[in-house]
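Here is one chain, start to finish.
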Amino acid sequence: MSPTMDTAQTSIARNLKRLANISWLTSRQLSKLAVALRITRFDKHSIMFGAADGPAAIHILLSGVASITCRNRKGLRTMLIMVAPGMIPGFPAPVVGVAYNLRCEAVTSCQIGTTDLKTFIRISLGILSANFTRMAGNYIGRWDLVQLRCANFMSCTLEERLVIALLELSEHFGTPHSRGVLLTVAARHKDLAELVGASRPRVTEYLSSFERGHMIIRQGRQFIVNRARLESFLTQGHTA
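Its structure:
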């Protein structure tokens, strides 16, 4: 193998170590995984893979921000969740009579590594059972969160759904800031509207209300989130 290839794979292994949901793999396993991965770069807004590509592959988002979208009952494509770097959740098994047409799309320029499921399991077999459970939880666990959120959303007002979405984004895409938590991903009103199942004008109206209530602060195209105020809103049921 050429020195250039060795250097590239070493860099990928270091990148893998920084990803929270696979960082528990040993250095040896990460090195093997780095060799096994097929690296692909995707431009902003491009489709990276879909349900039709089959469940036999493992995809790891090495850099960038992605989203998982599906078709709703009206046939329109809508966003389910945004995905930070790490192992991308596997798509659930198809349901007879229901066509979700799930796919993973690049929100920003992205780089992903792909390998087949058998190779990934072979590399990971040496890990402890607790770590294997942790891996399974990271791979399919986020779908449980999606299910839970969808179930909760049924009994929430739009205002509450928007607060929950902002809290989720601040947890996965937030960095500490002197005035709260800065969202490192641009929270476009259109994306937020899709996440909470509302129209863009209504979301804009509530975001303006949240600003007046000092629950969020606008900084250019980004938001600084005051998690304490948002959480207090949910627990006390106050209007913004």
